[in-house]
Every structure is written in structure tokens, then in C-alpha cells.
Design goal:
Layout lengths: L5 H23 L13 E6 L4 H15 L4 E5 L5 H6 L2 E6 L9 H11 L9 E8 L8 H12 L3 E2 L4 E4 L3 H15 L13 E10 L9 E8 L12 E5 L8 E4 L9 E6 L10 H9 L6 E6 L14 E6 L3 H13 L5 E7 L2 H4 L3 H9 L5 E6 L9 H6 L2 H9 L3 E6 L1 H16 L1 H9 L3 E5 L1
Helix pairs in contact: 2-6, 13-14
This protein binds flavin-adenine dinucleotide and flavin mononucleotide (FMN).
Length: 445
């Protein structure tokens, strides 16, 4: 005989009701685009540092729209608590940085989520978490976001999808869910842009005799056809023969007007002396006849954008000078000379990469101010954050005159040290305000 336990019946009914409400919410979201014009039914929110999640968000949006859904996308930067309380369906695509931290564009939102907030029972959401399992806190921000939304009563449309190093199987799982939501199998092509073939035209060791690992300036020219277009701040991805499925990223140090892509690559030497796969290939193994597979990636967050007309404080260490050099070249070419470069490395005599060029720019008045910090030139180690801390007044003046701050180089040590120095000089609130205005930008790795 069937046991009619009232408690189990009540919970089963509750589950059924919740499922019915969720289906209704999904179906309401399937309103056709023909009645578009009002606000979007679906929001695709991305938190991206170097553009992967932004690219996937664009593909996600296109898939929803192909299915006739009214959808729009937004960077997490632009999302407030009121948007969360007002939205019924959000698809989040987020990466993780540092040690389980949100990317810069998710930092403010993460701080907001950490505060108590109104219930979000109306919100149905799904998360695509991009990460890399070689970091100890795999998909840390995606997991944090999921837990925080659940704690406020939001309901997951389906289980969080986690992609390790952009694993195709995980991306396919996400696409599969989207096809269901959008009621279409007619999804746009999600394949990443193809790699192009390049040749190394020139490779110069920039720091002979350095106490650190060698850094090379590597100029690459297309094997055939014209140069692609790019802007200062953009990156390339290199697919090395030893690990073709896991591209490595490098900041572009040149402009299209230079006629080639220049990278500054530090040879990575692992414990035991083995060279890194990609840096070993670029710095040592690849010869002039070899084909380097490479593609340009827009890095919108680190492009000049609206900051082009502002004074700029460019802060970096080591190979971080690559991205800063492209910005300096671009700004100088357009007559924007309000530049303050803060650069650090080990020894002035060996490691002042691009030093002659920087000196020449400064002599010509194209860089107003250069602050250098060499950590191994005797005395107490001095890093870029110390150079900043010793010039608090100048820093405040530049910011008062509307300057933007661009930071490029090491995530460990440099980026947090610089951040702390900026907080000490300007105050936490002021730095957050600069970040919200898009005047504090980082390309750190
Ligand atoms: C946005 C961004 C911009 C960047 N810009 C620059 C730049 O301008 N210049 C620059 O020089 N670098 C840059 N990098 C770093 C660059 O992408 C590479 O990470 C770096 O060159 C090392 O890659 P590799 O293949 O040589 O080393 P890998 O072979 O990846 O080794 C690096 C580390 O990975 C681990 N590892 C990986 N595989 C193994 C394995 N099989 N066994 C043991 N350990 C392993 C080890 O800890 C090792 O020390 C940037 C990174 C990012 C994210
Ligand atoms: C400096 C750095 C730190 C990272 N830290 C983590 C981490 O702690 N956990 C993780 O899962 N992934 C980590 N990743 C991997 C990124 O989240 C992953 O590459 C993601 O696809 C990047 O997406 P984005 O380009 O949209 O920012 C890190 C990547 C870099 C370059």
C-alpha cells in the first residue's frame, strides 16, 4: 500500500511547485524578439580580466537572441544591487584571479555581495565559471558567486558549469544548456578565432648579465598577408608546439605602425632548470624558419579608451613594460605627452629594458616624469610601490588633474604593493571611485 506520509507529500508538492515556478520563469523569458523594445528578459553578465569571459558572454548573448529571446549583456562593473533585485534571469560568466579573487571588473560587485542584502527570490541564474585547476582556488570567484546568490534565495536554473583552462567539454555543456533555454539548436559558431602563422623576424636579449632570467624582445611578422589590427593594451596568444591546447598570453609592446608585433618575453626557468613551454619556444627553440602560431586578442579593459585624452600614470615591473611601452608609443604618436612612467626591475645597469628609448622620449619632453626603482642596486630593496609612496604629493596632483592609472606586470608582489601604495596615498574610497570611473586599469599576471 502507498504510504501517505503528510510531511513527505508536502515537501514533494513544494518541490513540484518550485519546479513549476522555475519553468514559468524560463518560459516567460522565451518571449519573442518581436515584442522587443521593453527591458531585456535575460541579462548576460560577465566579469573578465583578459577577455575570455567577455568573448563567451558575446557568444551566449548571440545564442539567446538567435532563439528569439530579449537579452542584453553587461560587464559586472556596471551591475548594482538594484539590478540584482530587479532581474529575473541572469547568466553569469566569470573568471577567477589572484588566489580565488574576482577579476578587477568583478571586485566591486563581490564587495557588495559580501554585505547583507534583500532576498533575491525572484532571480533565476546560471553560472559559467572559467578557471585553471593549477591554481589552488579553482573557479573560486564562480563558486563564491554561486554560494552568495543562493544564500540570498536566488534559484539556479542548472548546476554551475566549471571550465578548466577553457575546456571544450565544459563550454559545450554550457552551450547545451543555452540551447534548451533559447529553444534553438541553431547556435552561432563558438570556435575561437584561428591562429595565424608568424615568423620571428628579430630576437634581442635585453638584459645580458642580469641576475634574473633573460628577457628577449621578439619581433614577429606574419608569414603571409597583412598585419592584423590591434591597439595599445592588447594581447597575443601563442600556441607552442609542446602544449598546443593551452595558449600562453603576452602583452603586445608595439603598434601596427611599427610593422610587426613585438613582445617582451622572459624565459621561464622551472625548478630543476627546465624551460617553460611557451617562453622556451619563443626565446630559445623557435628559429627564423619556424612557424609561430599566434592570434591577437583584444584586451578592452587595458586599452586606452576614454583615458586617451587624460594624463596617464603608467606603472610596471619587468616584462610589464611591454604593455606600457605600447601605450607610450600610441600616446606620443598622438601628441599626448602628459605621461608619468614608474618602472622597476633588479639592476639599473642590466635590467633597464627599453631604457635608451625611454630616456630619448623624456629628453624630447614626450614623457613628463620617469621614476625608477631598482631593487638590487644596494641598500634597502626599492620597488615601484616605494617609488610611488615617496611621491604622494605628485600622485595626488596628477589624479586631481584627471590622470588615469595603468598597471602592468607581476600580480604577485607588484600589483598588490602598488594597490596598497595607491590606497595609502589617495584613500580607499578615492581609488574605488577611480576604478568605477575606469581610471584604474591593470594587466597583471
Ligand atoms: C594577461 C597576461 C599577460 C602576460 N604578458 C606577458 C609578457 O608580456 N611577457 C612575459 O614574459 N610573460 C607574460 N605573461 C606570462 C606568460 O603568459 C606565461 O605564463 C609565461 O611565459 C610562462 O609560460 P611558459 O609556457 O614558458 O611556462 P610553463 O611551461 O607554463 O611553466 C610555468 C609554470 O607552470 C607550472 N607548470 C606548467 N606545466 C608544468 C608541468 N608539466 N610540470 C611542472 N610544472 C608545470 C610550473 O609551476 C611552471 O613554473 C602574461 C600572462 C598573462 C596572463
Ligand atoms: C594571474 C592569474 C591568476 C589566476 N588565478 C586563478 C585562480 O586562483 N583560480 C582559477 O580557477 N583560475 C585562475 N586563473 C585562470 C583564469 O581564471 C582563466 O584563465 C580564465 O579563463 C580567464 O578569463 P578572463 O580572460 O575572462 O579573465 C588565473 C589566471 C591568471 C593569469
Amino acid at each position: 500500500m502507498i504510504n501517505l506520509d503528510p510531511v513527505r507529500w508536502a515537501s514533494a508538492l513544494g518541490l513540484l511547485l518550485a519546479y513549476a515556478l522555475m519553468c514559468a520563469a524560463v518560459l516567460r523569458g522565451r518571449r519573442k524578439q518581436s515584442d522587443a523594445g521593453g527591458p531585456a528578459d535575460w541579462l548576460v553578465v560577465y566579469a573578465s580580466q583578459t577577455g575570455t569571459c567577455e568573448y563567451l558572454a558575446a557568444q551566449t548573448l548571440a545564442t539567446l537572441q538567435t532563439g528569439g529571446l530579449r537579452a542584453r549583456s553587461a560587464s559586472m562593473d556596471d551591475l548594482g544591487d538594484a539590478d540584482l533585485r530587479g532581474a529575473e534571469r541572469i547568466l553569469f560568466i566569470v573568471s577567477t584571479y589572484g588566489e580565488g579573487d574576482p577579476p578587477d571588473s568583478g571586485a566591486r560587485f563581490a564587495r557588495m555581495l559580501a554585505q547583507p542584502g534583500a532576498p533575491l527570490a525572484q532571480l533565476h541564474y546560471a553560472i559559467l565559471a572559467m578557471g585553471d585547476s593549477s591554481y589552488s582556488n579553482f573557479c573560486g570567484f564562480g563558486r563564491y558567486l554561486d554560494a552568495a546568490l543562493q544564500a540570498r534565495g536566488a534559484q539556479a536554473l542548472f548546476e554551475r558549469v566549471e571550465a578548466d583552462r577553457s575546456a571544450p567539454a565544459a563550454i559545450e555543456a554550457w552551450q547545451h544548456h543555452l540551447s534548451h533555454l533559447a529553444g534553438t539548436s541553431d547556435a552561432p559558431d563558438w570556435t575561437a578565432p584561428a591562429y595565424a602563422e608568424w615568423h620571428i623576424a628579430n630576437r634581442t636579449l635585453l638584459n645580458p648579465g642580469s641576475a634574473g632570467a633573460p628577457v628577449y624582445r621578439i619581433a614577429l611578422a606574419p608569414a603571409a598577408g597583412a598585419l592584423p589590427n590591434w591597439q595599445a593594451g592588447d594581447l597575443v596568444q601563442v600556441s607552442a608546439p609542446g602544449d598546443p591546447d593551452y595558449p600562453r598570453e603576452y602583452s603586445i609592446a608595439s603598434l601596427p605602425a611599427d610593422g610587426c608585433i613585438e613582445l617582451l618575453v622572459r624565459l621561464h626557468v622551472r625548478d630543476g632548470g627546465v624551460h617553460g613551454v611557451a617562453s622556451g619556444w619563443l626565446c630559445q627553440q623557435a628559429g627564423e624558419q619556424d612557424t609561430v602560431l599566434m592570434r591577437v586578442r583584444q584586451h578592452r579593459r587595458f586599452q586606452a579608451g576614454e583615458n586617451a585624452a587624460r594624463p596617464m600614470i603608467l606603472i610596471g615591473n619587468g616584462t610589464g613594460i611591454a604593455g606600457l611601452r605600447a601605450h607610450l608609443k600610441s600616446r606620443i604618436a598622438s601628441g599626448q605627452y602628459a605621461n608619468w612612467l614608474v618602472f622597476g626591475e633588479r639592476n639599473a645597469a642590466r635590467d633597464h629594458f627599453c631604457g635608451a628609448e625611454i630616456d630619448a622620449w623624456q629628453r624630447a619632453g614626450a614623457i613628463e616624469s620617469v621614476s625608477l626603482a631598482f631593487s638590487r642596486d644596494g641598500g634597502e630593496p626599492r620597488y615601484v610601490q616605494h617609488a610611488l609612496a615617496s611621491q604622494t604629493n605628485a600622485l595626488r596632483e596628477w589624479i586631481a588633474q584627471g590622470a588615469a592609472i595603468y598597471v602592468c606586470g607581476s600580480l604577485q608582489g607588484m600589483a598588490s604593493g602598488v594597490h596598497d601604495a595607491l590606497v595609502a596615498a589617495l584613500g580607499q574610497d578615492a581609488l574605488e571611485a577611480l576604478d568605477a570611473e575606469g581610471r584604474y586599469r591593470r594587466d597583471v599576471y
